[in-house]
Amino acid sequence: MKILDRYMLRQFIVPVTYCIVTFTMIFVLFDLFDDLPKFREAQVPASTIALYYGCMIMIGLDYLLPASLLLGSLYALWQMARHHEVMAMRSSGLSLSRIMLPLLAVGLALSVIMLIVKETAYPQASQWITDFKETRRHEGPVYKIHRHVAHFNSIDRRNWVVGTFDEESPHRLNDVSILEERPDRTRKREWQVLRAEYLDNQWWFYGARQRVFDGTDQPVGGWNPETQDIANVFQAPFTRESPDDFLIAVRQWEFLSIREMLHYLKNHPDLSKTAATRRRYDIHARFAAPWACLVVIMLGIPAGVSSGRRDALTGIITTLGLFFGFYALGQLGMIIGRSGSVPPWTGAWLTNLVFMAGGTTMLWKLR
């Protein structure tokens, strides 16, 4: 790594770290004022409290990290511009893009990391916090036994009702009833299964019986076989449903990963226009949020250099304006995106697009 890159990273990372630590401490302290008596009353171990706030901070990174990067880049570039360091670097033949390359690399790396975190750890952390609060802070999260879980496959018109299943073993379902429908919504076939297991991408039924219905929705004969025997095992004639469908059915929408959200939309083409629009917005928002790390740096660089040539008051006003403008624009995008006033992707990416355009324009003028 060249001396220039090390110097730029040091000048940038120090104020960003201060911002992250400060925002995190403020958040934790304010929350502790409210929750500490509850933790003490429930005798929650210190390790569980630490895990709780670790999950809370992870969820809050959507706001904490972009804000810290924006303020850190503005301060670092403002200081360097005030001391004419940027001018000296450019006078030596370095382009502005080359000077700022380390900062942009940090923004890109953090965006990729955040995208991975949002897809992997974020849903689990959100679910953990909800489970922790539901247990009234007396214990950590537990895997739940769900009862009477319904799942409707609108593509094949198959309605499942699962008596019980454990989130830890979603491939095993107990006391399952399955009703297959024709396109005109009359019953085609009904199944009663003591246990269903998903093995090698295929459902296997244990102790199953079925009965068939004619075109007038009347049963043709009785159950076949008449009684259920757990020793009766055979391969189910349908495979579209997977254990993920039943996990998605019992989880709140915001606790799903992007992959699970897309899976849900694919298997529910009959959603109302309003519901589909809101869910598509949420998917785009989940994609768009991590890239704010790169976007705010692209805007913070030219804004910081420009404000460094002016007085401190102007720099402070510029910082506050960008800070609140970023989140106000995000709220506006959410409102118009979820309401259907604009396409969902437009609302989700609105803040990034506007700030990216503004940053690119300002960088071009600085050249």
Structure in words:
It is a single chain. The chain is an alpha+beta fold and 367 residues long. The protein folds into 2 domains: 3-120 and 285-366, no CATH class; 145-244, no CATH class. It has helices spanning 3-42, 46-82, 85-91, 96-99, 101-119, 121-134, 243-250, 258-266, 273-288, 292-307, 312-339, 344-366, and strands at 145-153, 158-166, 172-181, 187-199, 202-213, 219-224, 233-235. Strands 1, 2, 3, 4, 5, 6 and 7 form a 7-stranded antiparallel beta sheet that branches. Strand 5 (202-213) and strand 6 (219-224) form a beta hairpin.
Helix-strand layout with pairing:
Elements: H1 3-42, H2 46-82, H3 85-91, H4 96-99, H5 101-119, H6 121-134, E1 145-153, E2 158-166, E3 172-181, E4 187-199, E5 202-213, E6 219-224, E7 233-235, H7 243-250, H8 258-266, H9 273-288, H10 292-307, H11 312-339, H12 344-366
Antiparallel strand pairs: 1-2, 2-3, 3-4, 4-5, 5-6, 5-7
Helix pairs in contact: 1-2, 2-6, 2-10, 2-11, 5-10, 8-9, 9-11, 9-12, 10-12, 11-12
How much of the sequence lies in strands comes to 15-25%
Overall shape? elongated
Number of helices: 12
Structural class comes to alpha+beta
Mean pLDDT: 86
Profile the largest sheet: 7 strands, antiparallel
| Whole-number count of domains | 2
H-E order: HHHHHHEEEEEEEHHHHHH
Distance between the termini: 25 Å
Poorly predicted regions are: none
Q: Gist?
A:
The chain has helices spanning 3-42, 46-82, 85-91, 96-99, 101-119, 121-134, 243-250, 258-266, 273-288, 292-307, 312-339, 344-366; strands at residues 145-153, 158-166, 172-181, 187-199, 202-213, 219-224, 233-235.
